[in-house]
Design brief:
The chain has one domain: Sandwich (Jelly Rolls). It is built from two helices and eleven strands; from the N terminus they run ααβββββββββββ. The protein is an alpha+beta fold and about 190 residues long. Bound molecules: fe (ii) ion. The site of fe (ii) ion has 3 residues, from loops.
């Protein structure tokens, strides 16, 4: 990993808010936003210690989703995948940047190839699988390249910083079952800290 920084969440949010307000196109947003996220995840103190662990309670005790910032057009969270934790293929319905902060996580991307004209039906083809390591950033392009599955096959929690253009809580999205060419709607629950 490159040199550590002291660039914190507050500076990151200020830079991203300014960027989002300039209404950049998708490419410009990633070109300018990724270096900000890169700096943030190279700061070993970027996330408070309490937000680097699975929640230990509720429906998914081996998972942690901690909201770090919410404002118009910008949402930042810390997402923790405990050992063996993961999620089936899903979409996001907004742009996203995921920076790996601690440990590593397997990300599998899918391409949707059907005509999108049948209710509950979706054909996915596996596009690529990547072991995402600390300091790496994964970009989600809405409608184009944003369907993924995540798996932590390791024995330690993996911690990521997620940045989105919309608050994911209550946002209508889709979960996919590639083996049965099926899809269904879902919404994220509230976060573990609010
Ligand atoms: Fe996701």
């Amino acid at each position: 990993m490159a040199t550590p920084t002291t660039y914190g969440l507050e500076e990151f949010v200020a830079d991203m808010q300014e960027l989002v307000r300039s209404r950049p196109d998708q490419g410009t947003l990633f070109d300018r936003g990724s270096p900000y996220l890169d700096r943030l995840i190279r700061n070993p103190n970027a996330i408070p210690e309490e937000f680097r662990h699975p929640s230990g309670r509720g429906r998914r005790p081996n998972h942690g989703s901690w909201a770090l910032h919410r404002s118009d057009g910008l949402f930042v969270s810390s997402v923790v995948w405990g050992p063996g934790d993961g999620i089936d293929p899903h979409d996001h319905q907004t742009w996203g940047m995921i920076g790996i902060f601690q440990n590593a996580i397997q990300e599998t991307r899918y391409r949707r190839t059907d005509r999108r004209d049948r209710e509950g039906y979706a054909v996915l083809e596996k596009d690529r699988a990547m072991l995402m390591k600390p300091g790496e950033i994964s970009l989600l392009v809405p409608g184009e390249d944003e369907i993924h599955r995540m798996d932590n096959f390791s024995d330690r929690p993996a911690v990521e910083i997620h940045v989105y253009g919309k608050d994911l809580v209550g946002l209508p999205r889709h979960m996919y079952d590639p083996a049965n060419s099926a899809m269904k709607g879902f919404k994220s629950d509230k976060f573990d800290n609010c």
